[in-house]
Amino acid sequence: MREVEIEIDAPEQWGEGLVSVAQGTPIVIDARIESVHEGMLVSADVDSTYEGVCGRCLIDIAAPVEVEFQELFAYPGGETSDFEVQDDHVDLETLVRDAIVLSLPFQPVCQPDCPGLDPATGERIADEGGTEQHEPVDSRWAALQDYTTDPDAGATRVGAENTEES
User: To 5 degrees, how large is the angle CA 29–CA 100–CA 23?
Assistant: First the structure.
């Protein structure tokens, strides 16, 4: 059994969505390699950083990405497997790339409650300082604008005038 820590730079951009790991970004791999009967068992923790834009407000974001995986590299000549030991070495690049890319968020946000952009102005709602935006009322719903759920909100009820006279 061997434990190794490797720090490399990403050889190319990993990921194609709103966020990705840029080329040259440091990637730290903390791996444990064990010899087993079928081949070499690799367990690894991988740490790096992704960069991109928020999916709601489009500002630049960067966040850490941490993944772990465990894979068996089989000795050549036996059953066919996805990963094989080559000259007493294992190639981790494909595993590390796949693990990182699959862990990247599909819809990244700068903060969990990011309000996004104002549809009318295109400005970030968080930057507007709490100014409340009112959407124009559709004329078909205008009659409901004065509706209230409180029965004592000042609206006269049908039959209320008759009870006062009696």
Answer: 80
DSSP string spanning 62-81?
A: EEEEEEEEEEEEEPTTSS--
Residue 140's pLDDT band (cuts 50, 70, 90):
confident
Residue 81 has pLDDT above 90, yes or no: no
Say which residues have a Cβ less than 8 Å from residue 37's Cβ, sequence separation at least 6: none
Query: For a pLDDT cut of 90, what percent of the chain falls above it?
Result: 42
Instruction: Give the whole-angstrom CA distance, residue 31 versus residue 6.
Output: 8
